[in-house]
Amino acid sequence: MLGNKVSRQKSCHHCKSRSAAAPPDTSTIHYEKFWLYRHCSSVQQRDRQAQKAGQLVSGLLAMNVVFLGCAFISSMIFNHMAITLAEVWILLSILKVLCLCWIIYHLLGTSRQPHAVLHHDSHAGPLWIRGSVLLFGSCSVLLNTFQIGYSAILIQCKSKVDILFPSIGILFTCTQAFFLLHHCKDCIQVQHNLTRCGLMLTIATNLLLWLLAVTNDTIHMEIESQLREVEQRFAGNETTSCTCPNTTICKVFQKGYILLYPFNTEYCLVCCSVLYVMWKNVGRRISHHHISPAKPKFKLQGVVFGPLLGTITVIIGICVFMLYQIQATGSIPDLQVFVMYYSYYIVLLPLMSVGAVIGTIIHALEKRELDTLKNPTRSLDVILLMGAALGQIGMCYFSIVALVATNPMDLLNSLILSYSVLLIFQNITQNVFIIDGLHRQHVVAAAEAKHTGQHASELPSEEETMASSKQEDTQTSSSKEEEMKEEQIHEGYDQRRVSMMELGQEIRKVSLSYIHTYSNLTWKRRALKEISFFLVLCNIILWVMPTFGAHPAFENGLEKSFYGYSTWFVIVNFGLPLGVFYRMHSVGGLLEIYVTA
Question: pLDDT at residue 492 above 50?
Fold first, then answer.
């Protein structure tokens, strides 16, 4: 032991002499030995543990609320005598009131505390998401207004809950939309647990509202029975049930309600996505090296064929949609209108799939590195793209099974079968293209900026020549002060000529800038911009058609006769809103690929 002690002392003296002789090597310094480092590490570890605990508690709260609501809604579906729709509405009204109390407290209290919002997530709440919240929220308010008006006309047959529930819904929709539009980018640094629980409670409420809208067909059946009773009354048959006293107003409310019904489900899904990002950003601190560079703004430059083909696709789609709405909504839908509708899809979907495959190959050929920074918005975009695509894919597989089991050789059946297979393939290829593009770093086009600056520096010389010509015209016109009438005529003519020259110069400048930008892009970037812009316009028309009433999956009657009305109603109401949300969400991802390519 004495020898060991002496050797340790010698080694200590040796270390002291080495440290005195030479400066310490920073590469071999063990920072974990310092008290400040250990203290900061322990604080960060405790913060991470508290964040995980808060997320777990709020997630459990949302899970229990969703399970309770699902139990109520399922009980109403399977035993509508024990649990009625009014009781489900009462439960959802209580949840809406609780969410309203928390949102108002957050707006007036939490967000106004000092140091409450120190950071903002630049990726959260893009323009298209906020526009969707505003659009779908307005449609949801209008939907609730129609429901209140319809119930007020039939007040002798309705209960007070039929008016109270949509009234609370209007207040909840407006308050939630205001909250999301103004605070979707906030990273809250105070009252973490309360904020997480409030956000999760609001997410659970929106999910239950979406689930009720998907599974509840009582209002639609009531509207159909009202229409049948009106027809029987005009035919001379007396009905003992409650009928609408004013047929015209009732039809307006009924048609408006049916038209706006999908927008309400879209509003619930969009709100859930924004609230989830806010929940992930609670307590998040964004350092400077994690802040991504600003994205370039959207400019319609560098594309020619994409907008041209996309515009042709949109125009043809609008024509098909209008013909479908005129003929398919009649008492006996024509077979030709379904053939035309599915033929349009069968031509369009392969083009979109080929474009997505080519874009994915170009992404593989590019040497851009992957963006590995933490980004909750991008992670949610990937989850939503994959999850929303399941709606259309699920409907397609149900259609495939029903058509193969009945008569796949029939003309309409074969068209629907081809449409279903192509739609599955198109969703998969487009998801791969968008997700791969979202994870790529932005292109740093220094050479392009240099060329653009040179081109911009050349343009003022043309403006100077134009200004000099304008000055000469003014001098020649001012020399004729003696003849006032001719002077006014000449001045008017010169102003028109100068304005035409300015317009021509502006058109020439924009054209030269557009041609210059297009010619200086590499073929890979040019192809990505063309493909992404074409897919943007295609997804827009595929969003418009089902959103505004084109529902051939329910109106052709093939799958409905195979599965039954109630079962196929639930399948369509589950898959159709997800499909519409998928198209809208794809537009946002494709626009980001177009801008950053």
Answer: yes
Q: How are beta strands 186-188 and 117-120 bridged, if at all?
A: antiparallel
Q: How far apart are CA 282 and CA 192, in angstroms?
A: 6
Q: Mean pLDDT, the chain, as a whole number?
A: 75
- The two tokens of residue 28 are 């071999």
Contact 166, 242 (CB under 8 A): no
Buried b (16+ CB within 10 A) or exposed e, 153-180: bbeeeeeebbbbbbebbbebbebbbebb
Using alpha carbons only, give the angle 8, 13, 15 rounded to the nearest 5 degrees.
Answer: 95
Q: Are 166 and 144 in contact (CB under 8 A)?
A: yes
Kindly report the three-state secondary structure assignment for every residue of 455-477.
HHHHHHHHHHHHHHHHHHHHHHH
115: Cβ–Cβ under 8 A, 6 or more apart, which residues?
Answer: 189, 190
Per-residue buried b or exposed e for 433-445, using 16+ beta carbons within 10 Å of the residue's own CB: bbbbbbbbebbeb
Q: Per the confidence metrics, is the pTM higher than 0.70?
A: no
CA distance 594 to 433: 12
Cα(484)–Cα(309) distance, rounded to whole angstroms? Answer: 55
Q: Which of 286, 379, 283 is nearest to 49 (CA)?
A: 283
Per the DSSP assignment, residues forming a β-bridge with 117 are 188
For the stretch 149-180, pLDDT in tens is: 888 887 777 778 888 999 999 999 999 999 99
Phi, psi (degrees; rounded to nearest 5) at 119:
-130, 155
